Q: What sequence folds into this?
């Protein structure tokens, strides 16, 4: 039987901006509205940082190589990114959040968790707060946001994607177990294509089928993820919203079907990875001082090389330069390389650089009537 929610419930909202980077570009350039656009480079080594909903209809997605995106959508319009503009709009949106709660956990420039249990403005409804926030975002920025409202972070995040774009989904405490039961297993946060395929082989296609497996079975097949899957399949997630959440590192890696042997091929592969890493860095509004290169050879031997700086990495070109320097020290590679990875760590979050991180506060119990 699914675990019942606690009486002392949190009221959590997950706000996710709709196609954020692309929507900002369409807002600022009316000629782009209603057209398939991709934010990112259009070169052979370029990567899509964001795609408009018009482009997504053709299968264009973020982190996709630009050549693939162009092949899927020949009419695709590439737009150069303007991360300073995106960061400024993000600050504006977070200012709206702060009107309703002090418990804000940013996940990136375009999404965040809000704990509105204390009901700072006395609205009386978590759904009402989410609707007000969405309305104020539209009025003040000209952009749309989707929201998920529930009693924990897991459900709120899944719910925010349920009625995108420009939608809201509310999962009340008495609905959590049934909502999760009907979900495709691949919708669970952290379940990627490989794990989803493994679940399918085990006969697990839905949240209900996942819930029917006991903890020993999940540990046997999913290791460290077992406890999370066990709780999530029952609609349980006790994680608090943490205003001081800071990522320890941001990176990307890629495994190749054929080992890379030539220096030129290795440098080109590294540039593609660096594009992905920098897009993730900018999306999170973070900067860091340590660049680490990860290399796995054809014999599965793995090494890492790192370079730390006094000041944060300046920009994408600087990241690429440091990555190339680390790679150059390992060349030539007679064994061939099957995996490359690049990571930026020793991060300094842009928000925490200006002011001390806020203390994590437990939400106050709901007083009187407070509806979802």
A:
């Amino acid at each position: 039987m699914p675990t019942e929610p606690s009486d002392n419930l949190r009221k959590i909202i997950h706000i996710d901006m709709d196609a954020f980077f692309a929507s900002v570009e369409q807002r600022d350039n009316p000629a782009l509205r209603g057209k398939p656009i991709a934010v990112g480079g259009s070169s052979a080594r370029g990567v899509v940082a964001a795609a408009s909903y018009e482009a997504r209809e053709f299968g264009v997605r973020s982190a996709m190589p630009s050549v693939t995106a162009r092949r899927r959508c020949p009419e695709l319009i590439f737009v150069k990114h303007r991360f300073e503009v995106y960061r400024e709009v993000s600050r504006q949106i977070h200012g709206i959040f702060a009107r309703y709660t002090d418990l804000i956990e940013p996940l990136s420039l375009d999404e965040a968790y809000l704990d509105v249990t204390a009901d700072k403005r006395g609205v009386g409804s978590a759904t009402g707060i989410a609707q007000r926030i969405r309305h104020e975002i539209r009025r003040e920025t000209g952009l749309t946001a989707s929201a998920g409202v529930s009693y924990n972070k897991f459900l709120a995040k899944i719910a925010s994607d349920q009625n995108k774009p420009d939608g809201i989904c509310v999962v009340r405490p008495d609905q959590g177990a049934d909502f999760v039961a009907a979900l495709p297993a691949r919708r669970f946060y952290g379940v990627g294509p490989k794990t989803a395929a493994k679940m399918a082989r085990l006969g697990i296609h839905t949240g209900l089928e996942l819930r029917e497996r006991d903890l020993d079975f999940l540990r046997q097949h999913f290791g460290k993820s077992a406890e999370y899957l066990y709780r999530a399949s029952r609609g349980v997630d006790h994680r608090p919203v943490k205003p001081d959440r800071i990522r320890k590192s941001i990176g990307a890696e890629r495994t190749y079907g054929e080992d890379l042997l030539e220096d030129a091929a290795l440098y080109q592969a590294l540039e593609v990875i660096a594009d992905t890493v920098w897009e993730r860095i900018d999306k999170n509004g973070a900067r860091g001082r340590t660049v680490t290169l990860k290399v796995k050879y054809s014999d599965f031997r793995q090494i890492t090389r790192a370079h730390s700086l006094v000041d944060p990495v300046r920009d994408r070109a600087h990241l690429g330069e440091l990555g190339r320097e680390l790679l150059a020290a390992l060349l030539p590679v007679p064994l061939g390389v099957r995996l490359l990875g690049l990571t930026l760590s020793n991060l300094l979050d842009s928000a925490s650089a200006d002011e001390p991180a806020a203390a994590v506060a437990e939400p106050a119990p709901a007083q009187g009537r407070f509806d979802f």
The longest strand covers residues 337-349. The chain has three domains: 8-173, 184-232, 249-349.
